[in-house]
Amino acid sequence: MALLHDATLSPTKPEIVTAHLDSVPWGGSGPVEMLGAYRFDDPDGEVGVEAHIVARGGHVLHIPLTYRGAPIPGADEHLVATMKHSVLGERWVYDAAADPVAVGCFVRALRGEQAQADLEVAQADGSTVPRENTVRLHLDGAAGESEILTFSTDLAAPATGHALLVAQWDGGDGVVAALG
Prior knowledge:
The chain is mainly beta. It has one domain (about 1-135). Helices cover about 10% and strands about 45% of the residues.
């Protein structure tokens, strides 16, 4: 169960995603429309693993990120941004493809060993309220013993493999990761 906080973020997730897309060759140009997101639970409860599905310049893109309470030593080239979280404090945002916690979550999902997280939002009074997932995942195929994880960036040219993680959101679907 992913516990989300009703918090103020600076910069916001759309601002972080847009800046990240501006910095990568496949990121396109123009306004970014946030179509949805999904999360995985870190087994140790320390790292936020979240992927965004966005539309930009006629393309649907997949941006997997992690949110950490401290930097990953030696991973500066994979740092996407830092943000201020009004509840959790400073967060370091990384490209999930380079974060071992996220890679583990995706591999387990592609092996059928980990489902996407159900979401709950923590309220100021201490209660929690469920939040519907805007992106739903399902597994297609089966992984073999020794497989390589690949992520899709532009969903028009998805990752391929024996096991496919397929995302569905209002108005679309696409393969977001594969083992093959």
